[in-house]
Amino acid sequence: MMAILPTLAIFAYVRLYPIVDTLRLSFYKWDILSKRKPFIGLENFRELMGDHLFQSALINTTIIAFGVLIITIPAALVIAALIFYRTRSRLSGFYETAVFIPHVVSLVPAAMAWKWIFDARLGPLNAALSFFGVEPQAWLFDPVLSVICIIVLCSWQALGYAVLIYLVGFKNLPVSLYEAARLDGASGPQSFWHLSVPMLKPITLYVSVVTLISGFNVYAQAFILASDAQGAPGRQVRVLVLDMLENSFRNYRVGYAASEAVVLLAIVLLLTLVQFGLLREKGKA
Amino acid sequence: MNMQSSRTKAPARATLIAGVCGAFFMSAMASASAETLTVWSGYPEMAPFYEHVAEGLKKKHPDLQVKVEAIALREHEKRVALGLSSGGSDITVIELAGSTATRYLENELLPKAPDDVASFVKDPQNFGTFFSDTASYDGTVYGMPLFRGQGALYYNTEMFAAAGLTEPPKTMDEYSEYASKLVQRDASGKATVSGWSMRLSGGGQGIAEKFWVNLHQYGGALLETDGHGKWKAGFANEAGRKTLKQYLDNIFVAKTVSPEMPADADAFERGQTAMFIRESWVIGDIAKKAPNLKYATAPLPKGSIGLPTNLYVAGEEGKTQIGWEFAKATNEPENLVWLLKNVGWLPNRSNVDYSSVTKEQPAFAAFVDYPKDYSFFTLPSIGPVEEILTRVAAQLVIAFGDASLAGDDAKIDAFLAKTADEVNTILTREGLLAK
User: Fold this and answer.
1) Which residues in chain B are closer than 8 Å to A252, comparing Cβ atoms?
2) Is 70 exceeded by the pLDDT of residue B30?
3) Entry pTM
């Protein structure tokens, strides 16, 4: 017990203390520079409820997080299944690497590349669409399309990790069950749907929690796709982390930003509990 | 044989290790004795200027090491907020707009300037009252004025000639008329070269600042003072309506520009827009990136923003002398002429002969030879100014994407009133709202 105390102490200092201090700060009015830090109770939270920028950030972040979840989980499951059932293929290593690379590629250059893909005038996406007679779209400027762009970028990045975890899950599934199913006349897709999907529920729980949490923490993708580099700005999709940073270090409202962080923490905790409830119980059944 | 060899190698190894340790120790001693100075700038194009100043200063301080860290302005502001609030003993010269520095001065996070710097700044021969006041707080000098952001119209003379236009627009109505004549379209009628590039998108407060510049031409202001340190929104009126209407007409009616079109200096340099309003640094940028571009500049119809930037020095008390020496060196005539010639930002010091640069580059004329009744405004030195501008910018982006506002004065008025309410709420919260 004594041996792990230093580790616990470090964990408490770098993990728990910031959370507790953020909770404490959310009840204060503090501009980061001043020595004065008056206690204002729930005033920051009351102001948040009427702040249209916060509401817009919350809505955008929620849409992005769930959008990424909805795209990533089924896509990762199907891709992992395809790769797993083709493990004897000489190209299986290539498939795994190709899917996983976006997860390890540095975010900034990747987002810059996507920014070019989505460019309204010079982007290959609009060029490809024009072959099918589709009008060029202002991907990064339209309020709806710009959110979709961020969902696509985040999903592209999250997919590799999810596929990797699902592959581990597939490798641990009992082969005998599939053989029995085959003897009973089940087709490949039927085995996948009635055996793989239910048995992978613990993996799905883990992957969906991780994906949802990282979806709620989206920041750099929105920042880069809309960064106002000269000559190529985009529409700023306001997300929670971006709003927090802006309130902390541009508006000097650290207490207010802390209250946003508390709301984000509460949402993520709540959704994680719901996911555990939904998937764990059904998984057991 | 092997024993002998290892015996001869051992002293050699020891000598080598001792040599390396000695060299390391000597270099550590040397670096400890060298003075180190860090310069934080929010304008990457300023880095060569500070390096040039550092080179000059090395004649007097051969051991001086100057680290210039110039990053994008918004990131720089965050760095300053974090850096100054968390303290630190390194001597750092910090570049800040006067309006932004006020917060730090209110909280005693920046030291006052030494007497020699203060008398240099207060000398009316060196700086006009506007600049020395912006570098001061409660009558005490805290900063060294350096350069200012001041807007003017940049226009592509070849595109003007092709459109039959012989001189720059002189009224805001003419700006729209010119934009309609200058816009270039493809066969489907879609604009390919914007007639007038306006700031319509992107993050941060730039959109609101540019809107304020146009609003100023109509006699309005985003924030109005009562003269007693209190402020209120000043754009929910006729001037605000005319300004927003002009934006919306250009986007949705005349379609001379759109948010997704390339914009700003890069677009101008690439021939993707015929005219736009920007500060003097664009002259230096064009010289580097598009030296063959045929362009000219012109003063704005009524006046411009004047946003002074100063240098402040942070660091361990009693050891900031080298920082102030550096700040003072930036204002040496030779360095200021270098700044104007090579970077393009307008120096604030007045008793320096800049004619060698302004004669060589006629584009500077719009920034120095403006009409007598030309009026300037600056951002107020109040705490929530960034928050106000950011929130107004967020609202304007929504307006620029809402076609139903174009041509509907009642809707425009409602939008402006709602945005003004938001601004006044922030001012009320901070106890700064004027009656």
Assistant:
1) 81, 103, 383, 386
2) no
3) 0.82
